Please model this.
Amino acid sequence: MTPPSSGCYSRLVVAGTVTQHKLVLLLSRQEIGEVVRRLAAEIDRDYAGRELLLVVILRGAFVFAADLVREMRTPVRVDFVRISSYPTGTVTTGGPRVVTGVRREEVRGRDVLLVEDILDTGLSVDRLLKYLRRMGPASLRVCALLDKPSRRRVDVPLHYRGTTVPDRFLVGYGLDMDQRCRNLSDIYWVQES
Ligand code: 5GP
Ligand code: MG
Model:
């Protein structure tokens, strides 16, 4: 597979050290498109005749969400949340924190779907479900494009699962490596060399 030509560099400065990375294709844009269309169809079937509030987790899920809403027929509102991430081993209190939230009035009484790029340990989604539940939604479900079940630390519901992926570091289609590579149209795993 041809490596991506623009926007993401195989030579990256990570923590001050220049390292070489090889990007290996995991999911092509065509495969991603099929998964997104299937998820949209499942969501449309389940929410027929209703209006949905999509709460998208920044930043990674913005590309997925943009494609998902355009494949859906269900009327949607869209809002965004952002949570702080702590590097592994430095979590001191309570895990991830909501740093950009949504308004209670937006959520109360609505059918809410939390949209995530990749479900890894589950800590972020767990935190956000608790946060949103307190606002009194009519219903609350989770959709994730990718699922890395081998890394799960907390049990979280996943109502709409795109596809399961191996325990590898992935980039592209919204997923970053040091804020780069989000603009790649396909999903790659990063091989260090
Ligand atoms: P969790 O709280 O489930 O461990 O964290 C999920 C978040 O970690 C995702 O929203 C994503 O931002 C990030 N993440 C998990 N796995 C990967 C990966 O393979 N690549 C990238 N770029 N981010 C990941
Ligand atoms: Mg994320």
Notes: Residues 55 and 79 are 5 Å apart (CA to CA).
